[in-house]
Amino acid sequence: MTRIAKTPIAKTRVRMSQLKSEYPPHSWGRQAAVLRLPSALLVVLLCFAAGCSNVASLQKKSAAGDEKSLHKLMEIVSRSDYPYGSRVSAARALGEIGNPAAVPALIGALNSYERRTTFREEAVIALGKIGDRSAVEPIGRLLDRSLGDEYVDLRLTTLPVLSQLGGKKAAEILVAALRYYDILTLQQERKGVRGVFTGEENPWLSGQDSTGMAAQMFGDPRAGGGLGGLGGLGGGNSPVGLFGQEFGQTATARKNFTPEERQLAHQALVGVGEEAVEIIDAQIKTKQTTASLRQELLAIMEEIWLASQPPGE
User: Fold this and answer.
1) Which residues fall within 8 angstroms of residue 285, CB to CB, at 6 or more apart?
2) pLDDT of residue 275
3) Where would I find the H helices in the chain?
4) Please, what sign has the CA dihedral across residues 301, 307, 311, 312?
């Protein structure tokens, strides 16, 4: 006796083999039966594509205090075998619910390595809404891994969330971000240096000569110069990420960071408020801080001070 498989796809395969014995190869009965199979299979696939989980219903039940629904949403976020759209919706729902129990699942979502960033963006936003500062360090590490051009939207989403979460650790990451953007700005400006007497672009000053000597003198990280990596301007050949972790790739490999990102990091650091003052002050006193970065940090401290004053003063 033939044992029928339990899964829908397996049942379809069994049915196909049965049709071969029930009908002649080109009979109408066989063709009609075969045409009915894709319809049934399509229903199964559509059910799977929808995640077979009504995220909106789970969110409503969870908001009403149903812990099973909350755990189901956390499961959807945590498991990569659920449809991408369902995981995005579940992450958004957990943020709206605001239960701190979801923080570990959302932090785990930050480690997703899909090229699409929407899921991680929703996880970051959800962590900001919940407000648990334990998420700050994982978010910093996410920024370390997201310096390519394809991650612009993810960075633009993440920087304000660091401000929303606040605290000294968030301030450290945002100061490091400003250091990094300052490096990129200096490098871009150096590429446009022109000769004092001729007004022509000078490839020697841009570090484009064959020896790379100018690059070393002006601190190009590619030549082991003084700009160092993302974590500071003190030299060395080991750039570090926004959170301070070392990377083997230099900052010059990260191209096209827009001025808007630097401005967003500026605003985010102002938003951290008085907790950021100590971190900013320590960076200002560092000898490796450039004049442009020092000026920006002083402006941020003034903005924080003005924001702390009572209205009318």
Assistant:
1) none
2) 96
3) 8-22, 28-49, 55-63, 67-78, 84-97, 103-109, 118-130, 136-144, 152-165, 168-191, 213-217, 259-272, 277-284, 291-308
4) positive
Question: What percent of the chain lies above the pLDDT cut of 70?
Answer: 61
CB atoms within 10 A of CB 90: 32
In which band, very low, low, confident or very high, does the pLDDT at 271 lie, cut at 50, 70 and 90?
Answer: very high
pLDDT band for 113, please (50, 70, 90 cuts). Answer: confident
Q: What is the 3-state secondary structure (H, E, C) of 174-187?
A: HHHHHHHHHHHHHH
Whole-angstrom distance, CA of residue 241 vs CA of residue 231: 6
Domain boundaries along the sequence of the chain: 55-166, 170-192+202-308
The pLDDT tens digits of the residues spanning 188-223 come to 777 766 666 766 666 555 444 433 444 443 344 444
Indicate the residue type of 247.
F
For residues 221 and 223, give the distance between their C-alpha atoms in angstroms, rounded to a whole number. 5
Q: Of 92, 144, 145, which Cα lies nearest the Cα of 115? A: 145
- Superfamily designation of domain 55-166: Leucine-rich Repeat Variant (1.25.10.10)
